[in-house]
Amino acid sequence: MIGLSSYAGVMESPMNSAQEQQPFSPLTNSWSTQQESNENQKPTSVGGFVLVHAGAGYHSESKAKEYKHVCKRACQRAVDRLKAGALAVEAVAAALIELEDSPFTNAGMGSNLNLSGEIECDASIMDGKSLHYGAVGSISGIKNPVVVANRLLSEAQKGKLSAGRIPPCFLVGRGAHDWAVSQGIPPCPSEKMATKFSLSAYKRNKRKMELAEKIDTGHKQTKKRRQSSENVSAVLSVRTLILSGLSSDHLARANQNAAHYGCGCWAENACNMNPYSTAVSTSGCGEHLIRTMLARECSAAMQSEDAHQALLEAMQNKFISSPFLASEDRVLGGVIVLRCCRCVEAQPSQNIQGILVEFLWSHTTESMCVGYMSAQDSKAKTHISRLPPGTIPGQSLAIEGGVCRLMSVVE
């Protein structure tokens, strides 16, 4: 099982053709009765399941087709790599490269610019078997940050460096860039990674910030002149509203949660203590994800028998109502979860074993775009999940997902 930066999860296993998927309705605990069977497909010795997302935030209807298309391409890229015999970690990296190369996702090409007008990216990847982890933060001048994170993971799995040194798992800034180049990863000028859309958004948001700062400065000056008679709490209330309104514009650098351990992604294979293998990836307000370590919390919750109820409770108790975010009036984030286990009751014979894959997503943002695909599917499925009408982003959540049963041939 592999977990990765803020976009995808892959489960790999040998399997044959028997498979069914059952999506379940949002905001309920009951599986629907819709089934899709691929019993007529030819057996194969290699397979897996991939789940990706294109961010938790707001996805406009006018660009819905583009968001879904990039998720489909990412799923297809991962499945193609698995069918070619690649390891799950390589399939994950391939899916992320596809997402990073799209101008419609806030990663790699087309990322939000920071306050200085530059592009800085984060990425991370985790191997659930070895539990090794690789990440980069605030890296500039590299087209695909996940390639660097993946290289760090690979180097860590080789063991210690000369003189007993422990290989790094997390590099940031210029050091991360220089290390990537020393590993043969080609640099890419930051200006080539900006798009017309990201430049336009930067200019628009910078004007908003400058205006807000002028208003804030005016209130400070008024406070000094009227300190003897003005109610201080009124000034602070206005200031708070300005700052909270600005925070949703995401003017700072993109994916600021992706590199933090336990926040952007988490992966852990089944063991004696854990009956399920899990992979988790998050998105949303980086500070909220960091302070709650949402990826690791959701992974731990997935060891409960009822995955849907467990994720619902984790998002409510460990995120929206977290004591670490008690001062926040809106908690914004989203998560995709992939878990699997053997299905003893589904074994028709001694040389066939069943594998149950459950995939879920939940978000407190207005919307979240996801895509998923098994190696037995002819094409990926995509969906833009939205909060129910009348609910308040950051104070309520949506949860959806499905289950896929795979039959694997025991060698």
CATH topology of the domain at 49-107 and 195-209 and 234-407: Glutamine Phosphoribosylpyrophosphate, subunit 1, domain 1
The appropriate CATH architecture of the domain at 49-107 and 195-209 and 234-407 is 4-Layer Sandwich
What is the molecular shape?
Answer: globular
Please state the structural category: alpha+beta
- The DSSP helix count reads 9
Strand numbers in spatial order across the main sheet:
8-7-6-1-2-5-13-14
Number of strands: 15
Beta fraction: 25-35%
**CATH level 1 class label of the domain at 49-107 and 195-209 and 234-407:** Alpha Beta
Order of helices and strands: EEEEEHHEEHEHHHEEHHHEEEEE
The helicity comes to 25-40%
CATH level-four homologous superfamily name of the domain at 49-107 and 195-209 and 234-407: (Glycosyl)asparaginase
Largest sheet: 8 strands, mixed
How far apart are the termini? Answer: 20 Å
Q: Can you tell me the residue ranges where pLDDT is under 50 for at least 5 consecutive residues?
A: 1-6, 13-45, 222-255
Average predicted confidence as pLDDT = 79
Q: Radius of gyration, rounded?
A: 22 Å
Features:
9 helices, seven-stranded antiparallel sheet, disordered N terminus, eight-stranded mixed sheet, 411 residues, Glutamine Phosphoribosylpyrophosphate, subunit 1, domain 1
Strand and helix map with partners:
Elements: E1 2-4, E2 8-13, E3 19-24, E4 36-37, E5 47-57, H1 64-83, H2 88-100, E6 121-127, E7 133-139, H3 145-156, E8 170-172, H4 173-182, H5 196-225, H6 232-247, E9 265-268, E10 277-284, H7 286-292, H8 294-301, H9 307-320, E11 333-343, E12 352-363, E13 367-374, E14 381-386, E15 398-409
Parallel strand pairs: 7-8
Antiparallel strand pairs: 1-2, 1-6, 2-5, 3-4, 3-15, 5-13, 6-7, 9-10, 10-11, 11-12, 12-15, 13-14
